[in-house]
Each structure stands twice: as C-alpha cells, then as structure tokens.
Amino acid sequence: MKQDDAERPSLDRIPTGITGLDTVLGGGFLAGSVHLVVGPPGSGKTILANQITFRRAATGQTAVYVTLLAEAHARMLAHLAAFEFFDPTFVPHRIVYMSGYGVLEQSGLDGLLELLGRTIREHGAVFLVLDGLGTAEEFAPTTSVFKRFLLTLSTSASLTGCTMLLLATQRASDMPRPEQATVDGLITLDKRRIGARSERELVVEKMRATKYALGAHAIDIDEKGIHVYPRLEAWPFQPPSSAPPRGRIGFGVPGLDTMLGGGVLAGSSTVLVGAPGTGKTLLGMSFLLEGIRRGERGIYLGFGEAPARIVQAARGVGLDAQGALDRSELTMLWYPPTEGTADAVAWRLLEEASEEGQKRVFIDELRGFRNMVTDVERLDRFHAALWAALARRGATTLLAETISTWERAPSTISLPQAAFVDNVIVLEEEEKGRRLRRYVATRKVAGGKHDPSSRRLRISSQGIEVERPNARGRLRGSA
What we know:
It is an enzyme of class 2 (transferase). The protein has 15 helices and 24 strands. By secondary structure, it is α/β, with parallel strands linked by helices.
C-alpha cells in the first residue's frame, strides 16, 4: 500500500440491505451524507425508503421517518404490512415515525431543522428519511433560503453521522439546481412505457466519492419489496478470480465429441443453431448430464417447454434428468414466455452459478432474452456480458437458438451470435421420401481442430448418436 493511501481517511458506508442497489452504489451510502431520491408518483420511492429503514432497524440501529405529506402514518404502515421486510416490533422502538408538517407550517424551515436535529439526538438515529421535500420547498420564500436549508441538513448529517434520504415527487430533469448541487447523491426512480409494457428503472445521477454503475438499471416490486438488477454490461470486464478450467469437455454423444476434436473448451460458450425439432434441447440435456456424470453441476434455464416435459423427453432417449434433479445435481430454472425482466433472469442464473466448482449451463432458447429486452441495441452487449460473467464463475455455457425452417441450410444461416460465442454447431433436417433425417455440422470451434463436414444425427429410444468420421474424414483447424 502506498503511503498516501494509508493516510487517506476511510469512508464508511451504510449498506441499504438491497443487494442489487448496494452493488450499483459500490457498497451503499456514505455514512453521514445526504441523498435525494426523486421520481413520479408510483415509482417506488416510499417503498424503497421504508425498505432501507427496516433493514437498518434489523441491524439494531435506530431510524427516523419524517413525513411532510398528508398521508397518515397508520395508512402508510398498513400498506407496508404487505411486504416481507415489514416488522411491526420495530415501531416505535427502532423506527420512529413522525409528521413534520405541523412544525413546518408554524415555524417554517428553521423549525423543521430544529425538530430534525433534536429527534436525531434524542433517539441516537443513524438513518433519517424526510418524505416530501417538495412541501419544504414551498415554505422557502427564496431559492437562497431553500439552499441554506439543504446545506444545514448536510452539515447536521456530517456532524451527527446520520445518513439522510430526502424524497421528492418529481423528475430529476424538472428539479431546480439547489437540490442537485447541494446533496451528496441523486437517485432517480422512473416508469417507462414501451408499447403496451411498463418498465421500472433506477438511475444514479450523482454519488460523491463513489464508483457507481452508470445508466439505467431494472427494478421490480413484489411481496419482498424492491429488487434492483444492475445492468450487466455496465460493469468492466474482470478476469476470473481463479485459474480457468482446462481441457475439453464433451456432450457424451458418440461421434459429436469426435467431430469437436474431443469436445468444447472448458469455460467456453457454444450456440446450437437449428430449426424446431432438430434436437437442440435433447443435445443440451445430454451436455448437462454428461457433466453431472463427471462430477460437474448442471444448470438448465428454459423459456419454452415446462421442465416436466423436458425431463420426460429426455427420458425417452435414455437420459435420466429426473434422477439428477432428485440428487440436487441438476437445477432447472424456467421462465414462461410472458413479460419479464432480462436482467432479473440473468442475475438469478448467475446466483445459481456462483457456487464453487466447475459447472455446465444450458440456456434453452436465446429468444427468451430477446423477448424480454426492450432496448434491442443492448442485446449483443447483454449476451456477451452474461457469457463472460458465467465463465468467471467456472461455467461452460451452451445456448440454443431456433431459426426458421427456410433458413436451415448451413450455408445460408446468418449467425450474429458467432461474434460473441466461441463455438457454433448447426443442426438441420431434411425429408427423404417419408423419412426425416437430421444432420449436425461444426461451423466454428475455438482452441483446436474439428471436423467441419455435415454428419448424420440419430435420435431414438436407444439414445443420441452422430455417425463417426470415416477414413476420409479430416479434422480442420478452427477459423
């Protein structure tokens, strides 16, 4: 450590207790700082502030929640009781709810400042929420007076070590400059309409002395409260914390692993491209179960058929997925094709893949993410960031991509995925008389030699098999 680093004062942080938000904020709020949360009605400001307040109380600290609004505390608490973070035993011993409107009306901003300071001292509060900053601004005769009010709040927070959260019902772009210039941090909550859909998002506009994540991050609200899902591509690339897995890993399919020169590289990403019915899902399940046979965990993420049907189909070709599920060696995540948040699904997958050890991941249908991402321009960056994040967790990733039947000839398939995956395997089928034949070809294989010729793929109750190269078959170096 450099000498000037050792002399630099430490900056203690107060975690919000909301995992994704603490990630975006680089660990939480600075202790003794003042932060402003703005957003239109219904954007989640009150839920966010109360969720952080109850998290602080759960650590044994005291918090104060002061409202300058007309809503009665009893009604607000009744609404909060529906959330899992709500604990009525914290009120009023660890969380003090009080109204400051009467004092503001009678004694103005100076009276409100005196009330806040006295309450912090009397209760030893380390966290304070002032809900309704716009009301306080209405009582300021001039902009200078309101700016002085904010500066005094900032000084009080610094002296007492009490972190403050101010809530305002408006957009950051509509706010006068005193609020934005005076506070230590500015967070915007918003709801966007995209066609018939609505999306909630969080943006950190400003956060002093913090390396926060730029841009918009998805948020959801459910019975547990607010969830923040940091945008994957907002993070700089980080190499694996430990040595990446070595060697090549196979599908457990005779013939296919030979075509791949022994398999795909451990830690790589592979896309299976083919029309519906060409065998992508069954090959993916074979890939996972072969890993389980070798002591690696398997994770399935699907957006189409329900897991029970996938397990049944696998049983039909001799793959015992149910046994792997029963032994907790296989995890199956499923998201039906309805509206959802791509970042929420991605972080759930990364959470599942965070356990130590080598593992395999099969994502059954890339279009699942494509249907969820409303900003199509970020899709490639999102995919690349997700594959890299999985690789950092020791995962080898297999992806299925369905194309139209008229695109099935390998020579005509357009593969935008090829730019951000290591390996490309193409599946096709053709009718010969009354018989349907399937074929597989390796289009791109990283880190070794492979057989690029198209070979027969057979799927039956006896299993999955690819015809082996004959004496004339050649292995060709990867492009």
